[in-house]
Amino acid sequence: MHEPSSSYLFALDIGTRSVVGLILAETNDGYHVLDIVTEEHPERSMLDGQIHNIPEVSAAIVRVKTKLESIYGPLYDVSVAAAGRSLKTVRAKETVSLEGNHFLDRSSLLHLELSAVQKAQFQLANQYRSLKDHPDYCVGYSILTYELDGEQIGSLLEQQGTSAGVEVIATFLPKVVVESLLAALNRAGLRLKALTLEPIAAINVLIPASMRRLNIALVDIGAGTSDIAITDSGTVSAYGMVPNAGDEITEAVSDQFLLDFPEAESVKRRLREETRVNAVDILGIEQTLTGSDVIEALSPAVDHLTELIREEILLLNKKAPRAVMLVGGGSMTPKLAEKLAEKLQIPAERIAVRGVDAIKNLTFAKEQDKSPEFVTPIGIAIAAKETPVEYLSVTVNDAPVRMFNVKELTAGDALLTGGFDLAELYGKPGAGITVTVNGRPTSVPGTLGTPPDVVINGKPAAIDSLLNEGDEIKIQPGQSGKDAEAAVSDLLEGELAHKLIYINDQPVTVFPAVNVNNHPAAPTRCLQDRDSLTIQTPATVQDVLALAGHSVPSEKEPVKVTLNGKSKIIDTPGADIFINDHAAPVMLNQRVQNGDRLTLKNEAGKDRPTVYDILSLDYRELKETITVTFNDEPVTLTKDRFTCYLNGERTAMDKPVFHGNRIETEENEHEPFIFQDVFAAVNIFRPDDPQLKPLISLNGQQTAFSTPINNGDQLELIWQ
Description:
Layout: E1 9-14, E2 18-26, E3 31-40, E4 46-47, E5 50-51, H1 54-72, E6 77-82, E7 88-97, H2 106-125, E8 136-148, E9 151-153, E10 163-174, H3 175-187, E11 191-197, H4 198-206, E12 216-221, E13 226-232, E14 235-242, H5 246-257, H6 261-270, E15 276-280, E16 286-290, H7 291-317, E17 323-327, H8 336-344, E18 351-353, E19 362-364, H9 375-386, E20 391-396, E21 399-404, H10 411-417, H11 422-425, E22 433-437, E23 440-444, E24 453-456, E25 459-461, E26 472-476, E27 499-503, E28 506-510, E29 513-516, E30 519-520, E31 532-536, H12 541-547, E32 559-563, E33 566-570, E34 575-579, E35 597-602, H13 611-616, E36 623-630, E37 633-640, E38 642-646, E39 649-651, E40 662-667, E41 694-698, E42 701-702, E43 714-719
Parallel strand pairs: 1-6, 3-19, 6-11, 12-17, 17-18, 20-26, 22-31, 27-35, 32-40, 36-43
Antiparallel strand pairs: 1-2, 2-3, 4-5, 7-10, 8-9, 8-10, 12-13, 13-14, 15-16, 20-21, 22-23, 24-25, 24-26, 27-28, 29-30, 29-31, 32-33, 34-35, 36-37, 38-39, 38-40, 41-42, 41-43
Helix pairs in contact: 1-3, 4-9, 5-6, 5-7, 7-8
Pfam families: FtsA
Protein name: Cell division protein FtsA
Keywords: Cell cycle, Cell division
């Protein structure tokens, strides 16, 4: 038994014809291959890189895993590659500020690269309307360019500057390809540690960055697919895939010689080392096949495969590359390299089949086949170490979501990765209204919408809640806000607000004069979109007095009022106006503030005209009067002939009037004075003796309280 398996790199190349497992260890100057195990699929459980029979593929993985575990101990985490079936590529850039940092270390650079990859994933996810419509997983990436302060640079490691940037080309495969791969791993008791694409794995070990300035095509010809990567101008510029590979060659042998598929595959492989092989066809007849026989039978299939590869290379590269590297088991097909050179019209020596012996700084623990089919599994393990693309898996509304584990991931990251538009999850704000106030547009917003309802593992959470492997997220969109509702009073704030002013110690609330769409409006008036408001605010002494129903002349000017609808004019003395505790009077244009106290004082102590003064202009007798004696003392009784109203409110006749006031009168019905009226004008002293009773008399005769009285009558009250 070797050292604990946690120190090893375990990789699987799950191909259409076989599963290759590899144990790799990192050394000071490279990598050391400890072991390689290959298991064939007994049935055609995969076609064109797609798993069709998960239990069968998982069984092959278990056989590989079991053999390796018997030597290296338990294996739990594995790095794998996927074939480029239905491949999609997306370019994305990411930048980061370097201010305050000395340089980017390897960890920071990896974070920058994967942030760009995540941005590419979001771009692709946003093309779909919902998580269930989002059918692609990222399976790897390559660096297109590094930039330092806006200029391209070969490497950002330990570089200093103000900003660093990276552009990547990220590759994506259909969800069905990746999900079936994950299902097979889970069934075999393995966790996905890192996922990449077969041509990415191969190109990382065969074409280092120093060689990528050359225009080279790398073609990984497996059993089901031929995956292609293009390098040029120092980077990997494109990826592609042809759904045709070694199995089509095997099928050509099967068709030509009536062999079942496993027998045809065996013939194809044995002819790599032998010139003549025996095979039994489906009729039980044994045949002896020579290399030339098989090569001739393969010729149409090879021609078709190389034509498809040529078309894909020209589509990706727009021209023939300077050279082509072939890897994968299918690359060893006789005459394939020569035929591809012919179709690309490049010299035959510019196309080469590369095996694992072409990988630099790689050693082996034991004698190992160096064939091209092992380049990809070795590349998978090395890519998992040098450019890991690790995933964190959660579910969102029961749908699986896998994210790059590049930082502390949140529920928001899962939603973005799953194709949710976060803006759509938040409740929309209610519709606002816009009105004009004194010519200026004013917006009244609706209420804000509520955030989405997030639940993680059955507990309330938030968009920024951190995630762990296997978390279950439930998301419900927030509620939309209410449309704006506003009344005139809602706009009467600050300088436009009503004021509480004290006039001669009497509190008066003075509201602004408001017109809505040129019509007077109350503070409770509801506003509509595009209403136009004109608000006249009580800013000065004169404004306040006018809106409070007062008007104070600045000099001795006549006061003009109306009496029962008729205009009346009466002279009034001038007045001084004082604000708060100021000793000096103020002018009418003096500005007032909420809570100010105004005091109006007439000149030389003269009184202002009253309601009585105004009525005296039209009526000679405003009161009825009689004089009687009460217990030998004269008493004068008076009674108003009129009930008076000032500006619509009942008032006494001694109430002062101001310019612009409105007075109405009602003549009272004539009623005689009665005995009890005298008690309102005199003081009555009740004796201490409770046994004494009051006795009243009129002109010497005992009488009652309701008895009418006249001028000159003698009234008496005694206690007996």
